Amino acid sequence: MDPYVFPDSPEMQAFKDLFRQRNFIEHTRQYNAQFNFTSIGTNEVKHSGSGPKTYCIQGQLTHNIGPLQPSLNRSGNLRQPSFAQIYMHTSEEQLQHRRNMFPAFSSRYTATIQRVMDLHNPLARTYATAKERLRRAEADGTSGGNLQIVLKAVGGAQARTHNLPTVAQLAVIMEGDGSEPTEGRHVVLQSLNSNRFTAIRETNPLHDALQFPLLFPMGGPGWEYTMTKTDGKSLSLRAFFNYWLQERDGDDFSDMLHRSSMLFKMYTTVGFVRVETNRLRYISQNGD
C-alpha cells in the first residue's frame, strides 16, 4: 500500500509539527476529543498506581453519532452542541466550543487543528455544506428540518489503491425524514429533527476517521469488505489494522501515530476490540 502522506502546505506542516511538541503529545486524547465526530460508549477502567499510563476498557464498546443539531432544552432553546454537531457552526464558533471543553489547553494548538480540518477533512467540509444549506433554507423562510447527511461506504478503486476519499465519495446531503431506503451496509442517516443516535459498526470504513480525526485529518483511508491483497485474496480487518500499526519511513500517519502517546494506546485498544467484534460477529452468523 502507498504511504499515507499529507499535502505539502503550511497549515499541514504546522499540524505535523504539533506531534513534536511535548505539551501537545501529553494531551493527544483531549485534543482529539475536541474534534471527534462520534461519541464512545464503554466502561473505561481508570489508571491507578505509579506505572505507565494505560487505556483499558471493560464491556461492550460502541461508537455513536447524533443528529445534525442538538435537542431543545426545557426553555425551547437548542442545547450546547457536541461531537459532530459542533461542525454545523462557523469556524470561529467551533473554536470557541472546543476551547470551552478544555480551557487550560493551548488555543494555538486547537486553532492549528481547526485550520487543517476546515481545509482538508472531507467530513468536516460535508458538515460545512450542510450548515450553509440550512442557513439558506432559513433565509428563504423554510425550516430545513428534513435535511440529512448520508455517510456512504467508500468503494471501487478507492478500496484497492487506499487513496484518500473525496467529499462526494464519503457523503451526500439530501432532503428526507430518514425513512427513505438506502443502499449498502455502511450507510448512516442523520436527520435534523431526530433525537436518535446511530451506532457506527466496527466494519464501517469511516469508523476511524470519525473517532480519530487527529490521526486521520484527511478523512481516511478505512477498511471495507471489498479490499484485496496484491494476490487478489480478501484483506481482513485484522490484516489492515496490523499494517497501519507498523512503523514506516516516509509515512505521515505512522510518524504521528507512534508519537501520539495515550491516543496511540486508545487507537490500538479500540482497533483490537473492532477486530474481535468482527470475528465474533462472523462466527455467530456463519458458525464455527
UniProtKB/TrEMBL annotation:
Q: What is this protein called?
A: Helitron helicase-like domain-containing protein
Q: Which organism is it from?
A: Aphanomyces astaci
